[in-house]
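USER:
Make up one protein:

ASSISTANT:
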Amino acid sequence: MAEPIWNQFLTERDKAVFAAAGYGARAGFGQRPALLVIDVNYSFCGDRREPILESIKRWRNSCGAEAWDGVARIRELIDVAHAQGIPVIYTTGVRRADNWDSGSWSWKNNRTEEKPLVGHTGRDGNEIVDEIAPEPHDIVVLKQKPSGFFGTNLLSYLVLFGCDSVIVTGTTTSGCVRATVLDAFSNNFRVTVVEEACFDRSQASHAINLCDMQAKYADVLPVQEVKRYLASLPKGLFELPRGVAPMA
């Protein structure tokens, strides 16, 4: 079995402490999960696969080529969830045109005023990438802070579906994914984080935050195991939105 990605960043003391303190036990899947796709938009992925130091010249929040590896894994999970009738809930950002509501985001980044667009199309960077674009029966939650729960109706949707658990994917591992995981944990949902379906602009932050979540808040599992679990669930568990297909 492969070593966890975070082991390369841990000291021997760290490993001994985690083992002795009992952290990292397996919490287990729930029975009624929702798949969460956190902020997989053009701002965080860029508009094409390219090295991160090239991508962030135009997209300050880009996670570079690793983002597109994650998108491919998320696509696999969405396809299984759709086939089984499991709720798929996306989050993405929203801003006023004048950026006034960026609030505290502007305090820690000196490129906050940039408004990157997708190529020459005029599409906003907060738009979810085409490769995993929501279907009419999926749900999109708009947010302005890291957690998908803060100031949104995400929790009420999970209650409406009768969910007992969430499977979390998206970006960034150290930011919006972690914040969403902590709030899900705090609301007593069982939480699974899909390792290959999360990504971050910092390799160290990605690994260490997976480590912390695995230790205390979530099961960090490989995509193949999560796909098998989703496929094992009985169909018809949820009454999903009917959705309305867009006009041709």
Helices lie at 12-21, 42-45, 52-58, 65-84, 154-161, 173-186, 203-216, 223-232. The two ends are 49 Å apart (CA to CA). The mean pLDDT is 93.
